[in-house]
Write a structure and sequence with these properties.
11 helices; mainly alpha
């Protein structure tokens, strides 16, 4: 019950700024960065504004700066809110864009292997480790094809075609 109250207060506090930050991120990431920085100075204990700033930096392709912020975000509610996994994914995306594929793979796996199979395979492909890329693409295909939820399968039909093409291409290469 206490966690729900904390979550409610937390959401109320940031909700009045969230809409503006979200729209600024789409229209003008630099303005979003500056506004998030201003809010962070006002609400020092709210790491959500650091997260917005990091995302604004990411959208501006300032991956090193975004990475530094993603690494320092330490929200005691992150486990409860489910954002810790997303933070690791964001760190992985920064590393991937910086072409530091080993670090990207590490953080994609730390975030959640099942959710990031495609990204992990893509990193291995960039590293020219075709067998590892093939393994992760094949695993993703297997998971999607064996999904009991047929609607989910239908939603992923384009992904299935794309991944199947990559598996076929890599299979030819590795023979």
């Amino acid at each position: 019950m206490l966690r729900l109250k904390i979550l409610y207060i937390f959401k109320q506090k940031i909700s009045k700024y969230q809409e503006k930050l979200d729209s600024l991120l789409e229209i003008n990431p630099l303005q979003a960065e500056l506004f998030a920085d201003k809010l962070h100075k006002k609400y020092k204990r709210e790491p959500v504004f650091i997260d917005y700033k990091a995302f604004a930096l990411f959208k501006q392709k300032k991956y090193n700066d975004a990475l530094k912020l993603y690494k320092i975000i330490n929200n005691p509610l992150s486990e409860f809110l489910g954002t810790k996994m997303n933070n690791n994914r964001n760190i992985a995306l920064c590393f991937e864009n910086l072409r530091e594929y080993d670090s990207a793979i590490y953080y994609f796996k730390k975030a959640s292997i099942d959710v990031n199979l495609y990204s992990i395979a893509r990193c291995f492909n960039h590293k020219k480790e075709k067998d590892s890329a093939l393994f992760y693409y094949s695993k993703l295909l297997e998971i999607i094809k064996n999904d009991k939820d047929k609607m989910n399968y239908i939603k992923n039909i384009d992904v299935i075609d794309e991944v199947q093409y990559k598996v076929d291409s890599l299979s030819k290469f590795s023979k």
